[in-house]
Amino acid sequence: MFNKILIANRGEIALRVIRTCKEMGIKTVAVYSKADAESLHVRFADEAVCIGPNSSAESYLRIPHIIAAAEITNADAIHPGYGFLSENAQFSRICRENGIKFIGASPENIEAMGDKASAKQTMQDAGVPTIPGSEGLLESLDDAKKVANEIGYPVMMKATAGGGGKGMRVCREDKDVEEAWETTRREAGAAFGNDGMYMEKFIEEPRHIEIQIASDQTGKACHLSERDCSIQRRHQKLVEETPSPFMTDELREQMGQAAIRAAEAVKYEGVGTIEFLVDKDRNFYFMEMNTRIQVEHTITEEVVNYDLIKEQIKLAAGKPISGRNYYPKMHAIQCRINAEDPAKGFVPSPGLITDYHAPGGHGIRVDTHVYAGYRVPPFYDSMISKLIAVAQTREEAIKKMQRALDEYIIEGIKTTIPFHQKLMKDEQFRAGNFTTKFMDTFEI
Question: What is the Cα–Cα distance from 99 to 102, expressed in whole angstroms?
């Protein structure tokens, strides 16, 4: 087992990793930018190293600074959390070259799953359902039109190196393909330095349902059931829950086995997530693999009573997985509390938190790094807290979440708490009738 782990991240996920390390008897090192000098992960780690100024490009994304911090503190492993360098193949490779264990995917895994076109081919070879589309990258506009007519409109044109909703266009006729061919390639080239495009059948009334997997160094994998992440805005998740209200026992078994095949096909090591789109007829299609811990790992932990960060560390240390699949025994919902003003289009709202009171009670979990007197910096992601409610049933979990949201006090800045309060009262949400397009018509 590791003696000391450096956490190459900030905020609540850094604090989350520190807590599990302490329980495992492992020393911790926090790294921080000048803007995060007063953050709780700095206070609770055994050691802390400033790695640069406020900008993430000059601190949390600066690989030489992080490696240097690991070397001067004699850390033998680095946990990247999520975001930042967690899916950076170069960082994973540099850790390996410097004799530091990267608690995450291998550079080979990250590269194999990071390119969407090659990932799709890998999944097809493994017998995992994929969305009908082009064979590899599109070579020309004429090629794009031909593929669109073969698989049938509507189609989605996507950048192979895309992410976060960028480099994507829905096309419902040839004219749309002509326009998307130029605009989407230009956008992808500017955002990702790669203008390669591919095409897929556009799935209508889709659900975004993902399967949590864990796999050891022998390549053996198991799954920990599903999470429904369909409530999202501009491809950014707002609320997650498990089990999915759309799930059946048969579909869960099919998707779980497909996720295991996906992980074993690439000899995956660690914890990860296989993300699927599920259509209205419950046909499911591979979307992508996240080769890291997810923001929403919390709700899986709550329904299966399983510390995923601990499992991640154990797998990185060469321990075997338990070998059995896990299924939800409870129902859990997570609301992402962001420093944003939902009344003004979710515009960021950084600033000083003047008063703070976290909800509590049976079945409530709060993962956060903020407190009264904490100044939310404008330089990073706006998520400041994750509020999780767990209960015997979905109806009880929603009621528990409503009560917790009413208790949650964060003053001095705007937050998404009012949005979540309204969502929990929405009849369609309460009935489980929603898709990834839910937010297009939801009135805030």
Answer: 9
What are the residues whose beta carbons fall under 8 Å from the beta carbon of 280, sequence distance 6 or more? Answer: 204, 205
Worst-scoring range by mean pLDDT, 180-194, 230-244, 338-352, 402-416?
180-194
User: What is the DSSP-derived secondary structure letter of residue 10?
Assistant: -
DSSP conformational letter for 100:
-
Q: Which two tokens stand for residue 218?
A: 């022998």
Supply the residues annotated as catalytic: 292
Q: What are the phi and psi torsion angles at 412 (to 5°)?
A: 105, -25
Beta bridge partners of 328: none
Could you give the 3-state DSSP secondary structure of residue 37?
Answer: coil
Domains of the chain: 4-103 (3.40.50.20), 132-201 (3.30.1490.20), 207-441 (3.30.470.20)
Residue 196 CA to residue 58 CA, distance in Å, equals 29
How many Å apart are CA 269 and CA 281, to the nearest integer? 33
* Nearest-10 Cα torsion for 6, 93, 107, 110: 60
Choose among 302, 424, 301: nearest CA to 363.
Answer: 302
Mean pLDDT value across residues 385-403 = 98
Q: Which residues of 290-308 are buried (b: 16+ CB within 10 A; e: fewer)?
A: bbbbbbbbbbbbbbbebeb
3-state secondary structure of 404: helix
Residue type for 255, please?
M
Alpha-carbon distance 275 to 205, whole Å?
16
Interhelix angle for 417-425 vs 394-407, to 10°?
Answer: 150
C-alpha 205: how far from its chain's center?
Answer: 22
**Could you tell me the CA-to-CA distances from 401 to 61, 360, 361 in Å, in that order?**
35, 11, 11
Contact 102, 79 (CB under 8 A): no
Could you give the CA distance from residue 162 to residue 32 in angstroms, rounded to a whole number?
Answer: 28
Is the separation of the CB atoms in 197 and 137 below 8 Å? yes
Q: What does the DSSP assignment read for 139-185?
A: -SHHHHHHHHHHH-SSEEEEEEEEETTEEEEEESSHHHHHHHHHHHH
**C-alpha to C-alpha distance for 111 and 105, rounded to whole angstroms:** 10
**Which residues touch 395 (CB under 8 Å, ≥6 apart)?**
430
pLDDT tens-digit series, residues 404-415: 999 999 999 999
What pLDDT score does 121 carry? 87
The secondary structure of the chain in percent helix, strand, coil, rounded to multiples of 5, reads 35, 30, 35
